[in-house]
Each structure stands twice: as structure tokens, then as C-alpha cells.
């Protein structure tokens, strides 16, 4: 099995999917997690590529958020779409990134990702509150590449 497949157990993956669903109950924002073996690119550059490959730019409010992890490189990025970046301060994602990066070394990746997803939901709800007619525009499932 690849490191990507071993990174999280199926149970841990479902717990992360549940965390995404809970975070999205606070916001109209859309959150995704993408795992891949490795990347030779800087994490933010690769996250931008994956963001487009997953068609995350196609949400109505342009308020998608991607948690990108290159497993064997131990690289990580959080990327928000332009709708978010137009209304938030330049360091908006710093608290989310720091929450994840500070814990990433512990090896408890499920908890780290859930904490990051929860923080993203908390941050997004101020600018993109949940709407009663909100549709889940993007899959909550973890994508792998």
C-alpha cells in the first residue's frame, strides 16, 4: 500500500468527512481535503493545481477551501478561493495553518485535520454564514491523487 493509502484509516477518513459536514453546517463555504504521495512543487503551488483539478473554483460564492497534504514530503497548505480572499484580511488563514502545522509533527493526522477543518468553518461563518437554502456544491469525501 502507498503512504497515501496508509496515511489515514477508513474510520479516520469518515471522521474527517463528518468534520467537514459539521463545519459546513456553519457556513456556505465548501471544504475539501486532498492527499497525495508527494509533490516536487511548493505546497501552495501544488494546492492551486489540485484546487483547479477538483473544480473547486466553480462554487457560486467562490468560497471553497482546500486542505492539501503531500504525505511523504510532509508538506501542507490551506488554500481559499477568490471569494474568500476578497473579503478577509491577508493573514486570514494563518490561524488555521498554524493550528495544523503545530500539531502535524505529532503524527495524529486525523485530529490535526479535524482541528483545521473546524477552525476553517469557524473562520468562514463570519463572512459566509450558512444559508437555509445552501447546497453542498462539492463532495465532502477525501480526494487522493
| Fold-level CATH name | Diaminopimelate Epimerase, Chain A, domain 1
Q: Per CATH, which architecture?
A: Roll
Helices and strands, in order, run as HHEHEEHHHE
| Unreliable residue runs | none
Number of helices: 6
The gross shape turns out to be globular
- Round the Cα radius of gyration to an integer and report it: 14 Å
Strand segment tally: 4
Distance between the termini: 14 Å
Biggest sheet descriptor? 4 strands, mixed
CATH class: Alpha Beta
The whole-number mean of residue pLDDT values reads 89
Proportion in β-strands:
15-25%
Number of domains: 1
Helix content: 40-55%
The chain-level structural class is alpha/beta
How are the strands ordered across the major sheet? Answer: 3-2-1-4
What key attributes describe this structure?
single chain; 145 residues; alpha/beta; Diaminopimelate Epimerase, Chain A, domain 1; 4-stranded mixed β-sheet; 4 strands
List the helices and strands and how they pair.
Elements: H1 3-7, H2 10-24, E1 30-36, H3 43-53, E2 64-70, E3 75-80, H4 82-85, H5 94-104, H6 109-125, E4 143-144
Parallel strand pairs: 1-2, 1-4
Antiparallel strand pairs: 2-3
Amino acid at each position: 500500500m502507498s503512504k497515501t493509502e496508509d496515511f489515514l484509516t477508513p474510520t479516520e477518513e469518515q471522521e474527517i468527512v463528518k468534520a467537514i459536514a459539521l463545519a459546513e453546517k456553519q457556513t456556505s463555504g465548501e471544504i475539501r481535503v486532498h492527499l497525495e504521495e508527494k509533490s516536487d512543487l511548493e505546497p501552495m503551488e501544488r494546492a492551486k493545481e489540485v484546487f483547479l483539478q477538483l473544480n473547486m473554483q466553480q462554487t457560486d460564492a467562490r468560497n471553497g477551501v482546500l486542505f492539501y497534504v503531500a504525505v511523504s514530503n510532509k508538506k501542507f497548505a490551506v488554500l481559499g478561493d477568490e471569494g474568500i480572499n476578497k473579503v478577509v484580511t491577508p493573514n486570514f488563514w494563518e490561524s488555521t495553518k498554524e493550528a495544523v502545522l503545530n500539531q502535524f509533527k505529532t503524527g495524529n493526522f486525523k485530529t490535526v485535520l479535524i482541528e483545521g477543518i473546524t477552525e476553517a468553518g469557524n473562520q468562514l461563518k463570519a463572512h459566509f454564514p450558512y444559508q437555509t437554502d445552501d447546497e453542498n456544491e462539492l463532495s465532502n469525501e477525501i480526494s487522493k491523487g
